[in-house]
């Protein structure tokens, strides 16, 4: 291309758009290079639903308050303390100012959400979901003069010492090279490259499903890491959840997630339970189940519930398997009927007083005398018809990424790369060492996308 750009933003999801909008508002000429076709623009952000937000009082659709310390405590709990507290606090503190910024740039939110998800205080839900958010940002970017190229696959960033000197990409069947003053990498993780997943995890990863876009293959990430840009994170750590086993290999999205685990028992292919299904409320603990299922034979699990629990959770897009007896359900699900019957009977016998059952709070309704226990919401599975879902590991995004500082800047050794920033899933491992907290990926992307856009524009404007 003949045009000269101040800033090239690689990627087309939430973080990329926040960076592009912020940079354009600062006067920079910005091009977005989105690998996906236009109907699939937005990366994993298309499938998101909400944004986790700190607030000291009611804010937009959020009720009451959600303090910095409580937010951080929730994050530390799900990560087991494996987080960069300084960067986490940047994300948390900045989230409060992000919500009105999002509204000012076209994002609309649903009224406060109550009920099964327990998120009225903590998470603001997008009106129209992730596609609504992505489309709003693209409209805003267009008004600001941002150029967007679809099916523009970046192949290489050339680093010379402490600078990116050019960028190569393909578009409309041709190779292009541009020399932007600054680059923001917001092109996600490597999860859609299942060969890379298998190298990290072993052959079991071939059985994983990829919840999001098939375009996040880690090409830019690998290119930069090969050139010595500092990396962060463990390639086996990722945001992985248990999803409906009937989901497609790629791009099934949020509708394939199963939220029924707290009200169920979960068994492996041998009809044996393997973890406490009632450990915590779902938004805090749902992301552990992808890894738990990954550790089971053939990387598969099975949810078993009865009629009284069917209305307590948001269902998958696929209907549950239904039967009038446990044995008949086992037959339909390919499980050993006698062993499933024995597991259900042992669980039922371990359940006690259920009078304090409360589906949206830790209720202490627990089992006794079995291992693993179920520490909340433990009710006997006795009321026909009985229902089941198969579970497989659904990978959302990987945590191996580019290491950044509080300015979202990348580095080589101890030296910053003067004109390279990263935002979103491609640097989320800088904060997330393991585990996941519902809505936090959008927080990271929004906060560090805005930071990267601001810093890149300041650099470009001073050049």
Automatic annotation (TrEMBL):
Q: Highest taxon of the source?
A: Bacteria
This chain's source organism reads Meridianimarinicoccus roseus
Gene3D superfamilies noted in UniProt: FAD/NAD(P)-binding domain, Succinate dehydrogenase/fumarate reductase flavoprotein, catalytic domain
For this protein, the record's InterPro entries field holds: CobZ, FAD-dep_OxRdtase_2_FAD-bd, FAD-oxidoreductase_2, FAD/NAD-bd_sf, Succ_DH/fumarate_Rdtase_cat_sf
Keyword flag Transmembrane helix? no
Q: What is the lineage of its organism?
A: Bacteria, Pseudomonadati, Pseudomonadota, Alphaproteobacteria, Rhodobacterales
For this entry, the protein name equals: FAD-dependent tricarballylate dehydrogenase TcuA
Q: Where is the FAD-dependent oxidoreductase 2 FAD-binding domain?
A: 6-433
Single GO MF annotation? oxidoreductase activity
Tell me yes or no: is Electron transport among this UniProt entry's keywords: no
- Alphabetical list of Pfam families matching this protein: FAD_binding_2 (PF00890)
Task: Name the needed cofactors.
Answer: FAD
Q: Which UniProt keywords apply?
A: FAD, Flavoprotein, Oxidoreductase
């Amino acid at each position: 291309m003949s045009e000269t750009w101040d800033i090239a933003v690689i990627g087309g999801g939430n973080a990329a758009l926040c960076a592009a909008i912020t940079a354009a508002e600062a006067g920079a000429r910005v091009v977005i290079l989105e690998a996906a076709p236009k109907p699939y623009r937005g990366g994993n952000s298309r499938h998101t639903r909400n944004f986790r937000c700190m607030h000291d009082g009611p804010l937009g659709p959020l009720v009451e308050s959600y303090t910095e310390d409580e937010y951080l405590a929730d994050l530390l709990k799900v990560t087991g303390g494996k987080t960069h507290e300084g960067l986490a606090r940047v994300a948390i503190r900045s989230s409060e100012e992000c919500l009105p910024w999002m509204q000012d740039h076209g994002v609309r939110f649903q009224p406060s959400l109550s009920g099964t998800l327990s998120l009225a205080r903590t998470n603001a839900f997008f009106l129209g979901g992730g596609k609504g958010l992505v489309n709003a940002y693209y409209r805003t970017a267009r008004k600001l003069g941002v150029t967007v190229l679809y099916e523009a696959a970046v192949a290489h960033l050339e680093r010379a010492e402490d600078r990116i000197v050019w960028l190569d990409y393909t578009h409309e069947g041709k190779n292009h090279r541009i020399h932007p003053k600054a680059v923001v990498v917001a092109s996600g993780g490597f999860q859609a490259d299942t060969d890379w997943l298998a190298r990290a995890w072993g052959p079991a990863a071939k059985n994983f499903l990829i919840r999001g876009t098939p375009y996040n293959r880690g090409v830019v990430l690998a290119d930069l890491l090969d050139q010595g840009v500092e990396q962060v994170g463990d390639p086996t750590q990722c945001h992985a959840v248990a999803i409906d086993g009937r989901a497609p290999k790629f791009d099934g999205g949020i509708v394939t997630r199963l939220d029924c685990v707290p009200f169920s028992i979960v068994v492996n292919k041998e009809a044996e339970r393997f973890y406490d299904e009632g450990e915590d409320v779902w938004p805090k603990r749902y992301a552990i189940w992808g890894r738990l299922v990954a550790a089971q034979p053939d990387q598969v699990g099975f949810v078993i519930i009865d009629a009284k629990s069917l209305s307590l959770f948001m269902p998958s897009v696929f209907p549950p398997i239904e039967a009038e007896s446990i044995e008949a359900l086992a037959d339909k699900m390919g499980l050993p009927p006698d062993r499933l019957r024995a597991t259900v009977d042992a669980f039922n016998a371990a359940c006690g007083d259920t009078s304090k059952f409360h589906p949206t709070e830790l209720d202490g309704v627990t089992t006794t005398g079995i291992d693993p226990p179920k520490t909340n919401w433990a009710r006997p599975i006795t009321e026909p018809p009985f229902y089941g879902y198969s579970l497989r590991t659904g990978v959302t995004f990987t945590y191996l990424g580019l290491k950044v500082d509080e300015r979202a800047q990348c580095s080589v050794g101890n030296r910053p790369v003067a004109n390279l920033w990263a935002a979103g899933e491609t640097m989320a491992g800088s904060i997330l060492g393991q585990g996941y907290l519902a809505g936090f990926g959008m927080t990271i992307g929004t906060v560090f996308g805005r930071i990267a856009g601001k810093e890149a524009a300041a650099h470009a404007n001073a050049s």
